Structure formats: C-alpha cells, structure tokens
Amino acid sequence: MKNIAILCSGGDVSGMNPAIKHFVEYTKKKGLTPFLIYDGYEGLIDNAIYQASYEDVAGVMIRGGTFIRSSRSKRFMSAEFRQKAKENLDAHNIDMLLVLGGDGSFRGLHIFYKEHGIKFCGIPSTIDNDINGTDYCLGVDTALNIIKTSIDAIRDTASSFRRAFVIETMGRDCGYLALVSHLTSGSELCLIPELKYDLNSYKEEFKKQIQNGRKYFIAIVSEGIKQDSQEIADWFENEIGMESRVSVLGHIQRGGNPSIYDRLMAYKFVNYAVDGLLRGKDESVICYTKSGFEYKSIDDVANHKKELDPELLSYLN
Ligand code: ADP
After folding, report:
1. Phi then psi for 285, rounded to 5 degrees?
2. Region 236-240 average pLDDT
3. Mean pLDDT in residue range 280-306
C-alpha cells in the first residue's frame, strides 16, 4: 500500500472541499491510502496528519473554504521545521503530497522536495487567477459567480437611486476578476492594474450618456489599481455630477457553495495530480491551458509573473 496525503496552503478557495473529497475517493479507488493534513504546513510540522475515511468527506462538497483548514506558516520557511515535517511524514510512511495552494506554497514545497525527496503535485488554487502557466486556478469560477450576484444586486439599488457605484474586486496585482466581471455584467467602466487609465477621457462620454437618459453607472475596479476606490467615487460626484457609493466586495468573494465548474475542475485536477505522481512526475504543478492539462515545473509556475490573457485585455481598449 502506498500512502499519499493532501493539504491546503495559503488563501482558501471554494473548490478545495470538492478536491479533498475526490482525493479520498480516487486514491482509494487506485489502491492508495489517503491521509489528510490539517492546517497546511503548520499541521505538517505539528503532525496533524490523519488517515482519511469516506466519512471524513461526506457532505463537504457543498461547503466553501476547506474543512481541513489552511495556513500561512513562518516555521515552514526554516529547514529545522521542514526536517520535523519530514519526520512526521516518515512516521506515516507518506512520500507523496498534493498541495492546494498558490505559487508561494509551491516554492516551499519544491524546497521540501529538494531537501527530503517528498514527491508532490501542486494544484493551483486562488481566486486571483494570477498563477503563471495555468489559465485557470481552482476557486475562480465560484468567485466570479459571487461577484456576478453582487453586481446584479447593486445594479438594482443603483438604478433606483440614480447613483454611480464603484465596486471593488479582489485580485492583488491581477485584474482578472474585475475584467471578466466587467465583460460579463456590462458595466460602464473597468479599471485594472494592467492598464493605464485617465478618468477624464471618459468624462464627455459619460455626461452625454446622462443627457441621453442614463440613470446609473457601475464601475468595477480591481483592488490593485493605484487609486483608492473612494477617489473614483469622488470623481463621479465631482466631475460627472452623480451621487456615488463604494462597495468593497472583500472576502465574500472567497466563500460560498462551490460552482459546478469548480467542482468539475477540482475533480480533474485531482485525477491528473494523483495519476502524475503514480507515473513518476515527482515535482510538478498540474496546469490547465487552452491545450488541456499539463504538468509544469515549479520554475515555470512560481518564478514568472502571470500576464493577463491578451485577448481579454484587448476587449478593454
Ligand atoms: P500562496 O501559496 O497563496 O502564494 P504564500 O505565498 O503566503 O501563499 O505561501 C504560503 C506558505 O508557503 C507560506 O506561509 C510558507 O509556509 C510557504 N512558503 C512560501 N514560500 C516559501 C519558501 N521560499 N520556503 C519555504 N516555505 C515557503
């Protein structure tokens, strides 16, 4: 019997629970013994490692977040604690690891592999969709759906009151969530860190639209832009002459019932990750691109900045 474990590291996303559930079921089907590691790399160091049963994952499919929890671990940055982590894995006879996380987590994992030979496959998981080498990260679709529901609700109140709403989405330095939400909600303005903008270039057009009967504006701005969302709202008040409000969506974008697409991607990512490890892919990240699923190296994934899809970007010009 081969022992294999899964953990979550860094920011949680909806889709982690479906991935953990499928991990348990798929590995058992493959004749492996699955283990769950609670609390990310912290749990790896503290030996929060437990053999998984079907009961552990019953009913988790519909829950956002991760029931085995995640963490950021300063201790995992030091060789001394990684040694402790290795001893814990040895005690359970585990030499294969699936990690749901971001590029930081994968970098740590790679160091761990080089030091101790624990084979791994990373599954890109972040709502920001900012991991290089993959077009899709687990959790993005659920986040986009939550943003969609929020924008639809805000549109109702914006139109009732003749207001401009500035809706701020997450994404750190990546404007993906804002851009896709803009394209799919028909908002009037989208500001993202990848594109320079001059608010005054919209002034004449927006004023003309008001004259022609426009009663509200929706602006979707990414948290990574240089200006504060309130400054954008002030511009609508002072330069366009429409009362304005800011709505920062914040962490609601991270949670919620995982979408069908995230559940399916969780399923496929896990299949590829487990199959890869069994076929001798000892240190990879499973990525999804236009050409399908591909195993990529840590260097491809974690050491290059992700560029926003030029096709999507071109729609903003
Ligand atoms: P993400 O995986 O979402 O990018 P972080 O960058 O916060 O999140 O990384 C998550 C965790 O991965 C860190 O808290 C740390 O435990 C581990 N990690 C990141 N970089 C390294 C590194 N260079 N060496 C060891 N561990 C690391």
Report:
1. -120, 135
2. 97
3. 96
Q: Tell me which residue has its CA closest to atom 14 in ligand 1.
A: 72
Residue 1 pLDDT class (50, 70, 90 cuts): low
Fold of 3-126+258-304: Rossmann fold (3.40.50)
**pLDDT score at 104:** 96
Please give the distance, rounded to the nearest whole angstrom, from the Cα atom of residue 193 to the centre of ligand 1: 24
Domain ranges of the chain: 3-126+258-304, 141-253
Residue type, 234: D
Count the helices and strands in the chain (H runs, E runs): 11, 11
| Rounded Cα–Cα distance for residues 122 and 298 (Å) | 9
Say what the pLDDT of residue 99 is.
98
Q: Of 39, 95, 103, 128, which one is the catalytic site residue?
A: 128
> Ligand 1: distance of its center to the CA of 93 in Å?
24
* Residues 194 and 142 sit within 8 Å (Cβ to Cβ): no
Q: What is the pLDDT of residues 172-224, one digit of tens each?
A: 999 999 999 999 999 999 999 999 999 999 999 999 999 999 999 999 999 99
**Residue type for position 291:** S
The structural architecture, per CATH, of the domain 141-253 is 3-Layer(aba) Sandwich (3.40)
Give 26 Cα–ligand 1 centroid separation in angstroms: 27
Euclidean distance between CA atoms 90 and 74, whole angstroms? 22
* CB of 101 shorter than 6 A to ligand 1: yes
Each residue's pLDDT tens digit, 84-107? 999 999 999 999 999 999 999 999
Pocket perturbation via mutation, ligand 1, pick of 46, 86, 107, 298 by most ligand atoms within 8 A of CB: 107
